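Thread: Modeling a multi-component assembly for a lab meeting

Hi all, long-time lurker, first post. My supervisor asked me to bring a structural picture of a complex we are working on to next week's group meeting, and I have zero experience with this. I have the sequence lines for every component (374 residues in total). Could someone generate the structure of the whole assembly? Inputs are pasted exactly as I received them:
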Amino acid sequence: DDMSKLLNLDEIEAVATKKISKKAWSYYYSAGDDLVSKKLNNTVYRQILLRPRVFVDCTNCDTSTTLLGHKVGLPLYVSPAAMARLGHPAGEHGIAQGISSFGALQVISNNASMTPEQIVKDSAPGQIFGWQLYVQNDRLKTEKMVARINGMADKIKFICLTLDAPVPGKREDDERFSEAGADLPVPSATKNEQKAKKKAGPGGVGKQLFAGTAADLTWKATLPWLAKHTNMPIVLKGIQTHEDAYLAAQYAPQVKAIILSNHGGRALDTAPPAVHTLLEIRKYCPEVLSKIEVWVDGGIKRGTDVVKALCLGAKAVGVGRAALYGLGAGGPEGVERTFEILKAEIETCMRLLGVEKVSELGPKYINSRAVERD
Ligand code: FNR
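Re: Modeling a multi-component assembly
Sure thing. I ran the full set together rather than chain by chain. Output:
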C-alpha cells in the first residue's frame, strides 16, 4: 500500500477500519455511552479560531520543544493505548519504530500487548518513552512492575499514573463485538492468566483489561506509596477540573506534569474535553501552568488542533486512536505517515500564523470565545 496517497487522519482511519478485525475496530473506536465526550473532544477545536499575523518572516519553522526537560522533535506524543497488536502484529514496537525519525515521545500502556523491553528495543538514540500505570489490587504486582520500569531509566523517563478510569466506561460497541475476532494478545502472561482472560468472555475488551485494576486510589495514600517505589517523575493523567489541576500542582516537584484528558471519551461520557479544563485552569489557577507541565489529549485530527492546544497553554498534545489507526492502516509506515501529516500540518499552521518557534505560541494567536463557558 502506498501510504503517501493518504492525505489526512480521517483517510487513514478509513483504511484502518477496513483492514483490522471488527473486534479491534470496536475496541479502538468505542467510547462511553453516546460518545458525546469523544465527539466534542474534536469539535471543540473547530470552534476555536486562529488569529494569523502577516508580514512576518516565516522562512524557518522549528517544531521542537522540551518535555520534562528532555528535548523532543515535536510537541506531539503517542498517548498510552492498550492492545496495539490487536490491530497489527507489529504492535506497540511498530508504533515506536514509526515515530522514531520524529524524535517524538511515546507513553507505553500498562495494558500494552508487548513487554516494555520489546517495545523500546531498537529505538533511535535519544528516543524516549514514558510508562503508564494502572495500580493493581495486587499492589505487590504493581511494585514489581514499577521496579522493572525503574531499571529501564535509559529509555523510560517517567511514570504516568492514569486516574480517570478506575472502572471502564460503558462502551457498547466494544461489548457488541468483543467476540468478533482473535483472542487478546497479552504479553508474557502465565498460562493461567491466559486461560482466565479467555474465560472472561463477553462484556468487551475494555472490561477484560480492567479486571484487577484498583478503584481505591486517593491523593493522600497513593502518591506517597508510589514515591516510595520510584524516583521517576510522575505524570498524572485524566485531570478534568481546575480543582484537581490545582491539587496536583501541590504535589510538585514529584508530580512534574498533568495530562488533561477524558480518556478519549472512553470513561465518563459528557466529561469535559481537555480544552474546557485548560480554559478553567487559565481562569481560576493559571499558576498551575508554570508550576507543572500541562499536557492534553483527545480528539486530535489536525495540526491546527495541536497548535490551538499549545496556544491555550498546553506543553504537549497526545494522540491515542490516531497512532492505532496509523498502525492498522499500514504498520510502522502507517504510523510514520500519520506523524508526517501532523508534523507538516503543524508547520503549515505555525508559518501561516507567523510563528517560528513553539515557545512563541500563546493566547494572542487564537480566539477561543466561542468555547468559553463561564
Ligand atoms: C486508550 N487510552 C488509554 N489510556 C491509558 O491511560 N491507558 C490505557 O491503557 C489506555 N488504553 C486505550 C486504548 C484505546 C484503544 C484508546 C483509544 C485509548 C486513552 C488514551 O491514552 C488517550 O487518553 C485517548 O486515546 C486520547 O483520545 P484520542 O486521541 O483517541 O481521541
